[in-house]
Amino acid sequence: NMKNVIRNIAVDKVCDVHQTILGIREGKEGWFHLYCPGNIGCDDDGELWGQMLQTLMHCCCKRKSFLFGLNKMIGPVMLLSLRENTAAMEVLCAMLECDVVENNDLKMQMVTTLQSTTSGKRMYAELCERQIALRELQQKGGPKKLTLPSKSTDADLAKMLSSGSFGNLECLSLAFTQVTSACADDLIKLPSLRYLNLWSTQFGDIGLQKISEHLHKLQVLNLCETPVTDKGLSSIAALKNLRKLNLNSTNLSALVFEGLKEKLPALHECDVRYTDAW
């Protein structure tokens, strides 16, 4: 019932009005935080939050202090950027320009997100004209770590991975996203991948069989709360370098688990709680 009221406040041209969507003081959350994708108020894939970003960035909040605060929301900002939200792309450029992000892998993820769309690529090119350091960062190759925001889909992942070089990617977290087995075709193109987190996704047997055939460098695999069954789990035996495996809350049987322990000599940590093998 409040949504239309908040929308009217958020897009109001008067600064004193639209600023009321922010927290009343530092450390306190406001409507801006509640409607952030992934939070309790967001039921529209970030449409309203994108409008909030647009108003704030074009008026009073393109400041380093505000951008520092967005560090905690970098995932939703990148997700909206992938979906071609102009305000979110502007935020990423501003964060890069003001150097509010210290982690180089995260910076590279922001860069590749921008380069995945025509508008973002243009904005980033203009930014690089002003920032020599960013050009040097990109020349070092792709990131080693990548975390996709919750609510990301197979299409979002494909768009991200097609936007730049990910040959150096070792660690990928897709936890709590909406990816399915369909994304396996993109995952098998990551030759250096050692850590893959699929916790609470819809990644199933078909995808698991495919990555087991190709990602032989995998050392850590998290399948907690995924719909995988014995049919797909049996194929994990091909991942001889696997050291850690999380099968918590999956349809794993005791028989298949015993077989995996015999065929995976490097495996020294395996979570099978809330399965038939527990």
From TrEMBL:
Pfam annotation, one family: LRR_6
Signal peptide: none
Highest taxon, organism lineage: Eukaryota
InterPro entries: CMIP, Leu-rich_rpt, LRR_dom_sf
Protein name per UniProt: C-Maf-inducing protein
